[in-house]
Amino acid sequence: MFNTSGAPKTLGRKKTAREYQMNSSQVTDSILSARYLRQGEKTFEDICHRVAWALAEDEVEAKIFFDVMVSLRFLPNSPTLMNAGTHLGQLSACFVLPVPDSINGIFDAMKNGAIIHKTGGGTGYNFSHIRPQGSRVRSTDGVASGPVSFMGIFNAATEVIRQGGRRRGANMGILNVWHPDILSFLSAKAREGDIANFNISVMVDDKFMELVSRKMYDRIWITSPYSGETITVGQIWSGIVGGIWNTGEPGLLFYDEINRHNPVPDFGIIDTTNPCGEQPLLPYESCVLGSINLASCIRNGILDEDTLNETVRTGVRFLDTVIDKNVYPIPEIAEATKKTRKIGLGLMGVHDALLMVGLPYDSAEGRAWCEHVMRTVTDTAVDESHCRAEKIGAFPAWKESIWKEFPLRNAALTSIAPTGTLSLLAGCSSGIEPVFSFAYTRRNTVGKTFIIVNPVFQAGLEKTLSGSGLSRSEQRKRTEEAINHVHERGTIQDLNWLPQKFRALFKTALDIHWRDHILMQAAFQKHVHASISKTINMPNTATREECEEALLMAWSHKLKGITIYRVGSRQNVVLTLKDDTVLD
Questions:
Q1: What is the 3-state secondary structure (H, E, C) of 269-283?
Q2: Residue 48 is among the residues annotated as catalytic for this protein
Q3: Going by fewer Cβ within 10 Å, which terminus of the chain is more open, N or C?
């Protein structure tokens, strides 16, 4: 890892593997100082100590919480690391706020969102309750401007409020596919930079997807009750696919699949998620997330299930404790959150773990291994939640939930978050994503640019070359050549001097076919209570037809949502390959 922000350019020379390694601590140091360290703190250990002693009930529990964090086996979401033990005390990352069809209600939602952003959280909104553009407003005898216009106002408010002064505001904007303004929503981010503080997604139902799957594009889907204008299935589908192909947005959320797994259906439907889509929530609910570093549970190429299970149980106790220690931004959020007590325990370092056990990400064996791991995590989490329910009580809405015969402390327990910054701290691959590139440039991380080299790849490369019969100097030269090559091209598949077995294992995100991305997400989703934040990567050459096929495949494989990114469809991205203006 090498911090290039503010560093002099090294013209005419490429960085050596040793120089990458020598600067590895700079990424962590920059992130800690910009985001997590509080007054008087100097190290990551100081942060872990503050968080553990702020949450634990006694010294024994504090030591357990400290050890699981400082060992980087488990990390809670950023607001917990930033705010536990401080006057802010807001510890959750995910919030959902309702947006009613009234000026007072709309601006209340905006105000509440601003409060959440100030304390470090992200917000999800479904704008579908706002009446469509052109409809009558009885109280003023005027004409409604529609949901998209209000999204612009929400976006502007987010722009001027940094999350707790340490994180950029993040929102999810959703519109249901049956809303009359769906076409204007689909074009809201057609130009890069518009509504930049929002991810946008369309909530689609099975009925719409069935019509698409049968190619019934001429079927009238919406007839405006105000103008009489009609919109066909094909117009909407074309707008969705075109947006994804051009800019990577919108994402799709599958309404029926989400609500088939609603743990408290008597409390209403779920039509909104947090900003990255992994946490579908009811109005005013919040959720605290935490991720287990799966790579830290690998011992000598084998999964240490005892370590994994112990970490799961600690993670459940940790996150459940956060619910009670949390300082909630508004009373409605406290009430809704404590009623269901949802937590989002997930994984990071999954691709690293696969590499360590020798299973390709795009293999059936790799998917089966991951499915086993996720089943183990969820089953253990449910058992621990049951034990806590027996000891200190079930969540208040338990008797109205799907768990009514089996008391739990938490209505839902597992979710897969993107873990961008957390995985940098832990030194592992993010979430369940395949590694973007084994050497890459990361931009806009605490305002700096870094070069990241995957340590599992570097170790595997050095081990392979050590048995090649080459001299040590030649091994070093080949190591540097491979790292620079993957940084420039994002692949080692064309380095024919590397063994085929090594190349088959060390595939990057773009080496892996988009179908295998979807199959891996589906393997995890079988045993995840909430949803999954994952990007389905496609090469720049991918066609609109392939985007269509991927969306239909995601729906048929019972995903709760899908995000597709075609390389090159955006200019402003966080992860990139080598840029000679940064390093030469």
A1: CCCEECCCCCCEECC
A2: no
A3: C
